[in-house]
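Hey, I'm writing a tutorial for new members on how sequence and structure tokens pair up, and I'd like a real worked example in the thread rather than a made-up one. If someone can provide the structure for the chain below, I'll link this post from the tutorial.
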Amino acid sequence: MLHVTNGDKAVEVLRKARLPGAFLPWRDVLHEGPVDAALAPEALSALRARFIASCGWGVAAEVEAQFRERDAMLAHASGEDEVVLWFEHDLYDQLQLIQLLAWFAGHPHPRLTLVCEPEYLGTMTPARAAALFQARRPVRPEQLRTGLAAWQAFGSASPHKLLQVKAHSLRFLAAALRRLLQEFPWTGDGLSRLEREVFEALEFGPLGLDDLFRAVQSHEDPMYLGDTVLLWHLERMAREGLLLRIGEHWTASGKPRGRREARWIGGVRLDADTPWRWDPASGRLVALA
């Protein structure tokens, strides 16, 4: 038996629950950096490893080695009597889930099961994890199809494809993809949802990272990102002239915006020429004329 889940904290909980089998943490923050769904798994892992290293979240050689080991375990999953996918309801997990469902759509397993509830695995009690294990359900063919379609749309250069994904068979996916689309520049001021939350938190004065993180997360349900990724965004916003760092505190710069850095949402590269905008009035992604 192989258990695949979102990270090391979840693996620790599953081990404490004394579940049988091996454990595979899927360590990748897919809502940041480039994702090309057309690439072979090895090439995509190499692309992701380079991005993670470029952010300072790991040493390139070590991240590449971790991804090779991860991919090898997945490639040998056919030898397991069962594969259990453990994922949460937030965007981080839902993107990992569709990546794995896309894989299993092309590499069918006779006993693929899923645990996916609106609960956080890393803070779960072992007893609760054991109960959820007993309640796990087989992954249905329509869920594999949905995962594959969503992954291909997420990793394509056309974000409009995400709006065409029929996500009903994965109950948390539609909300997660909507949250993803809200990271596109908004009509009007061009800020993303996260950037707006940062500015709202800083409205009454400078904040340190911990307080800023809590303020941002107070607007997010489910959780959106970790403090390491938030810090990466804050540093980007400072380079763009949106924020100032004063010691250990952050504040709005009050200056005209500088040049925005190119960044990625899945397969879409956001730069000065990108026409796509999130329209909060209609709740849709639109293309500027």
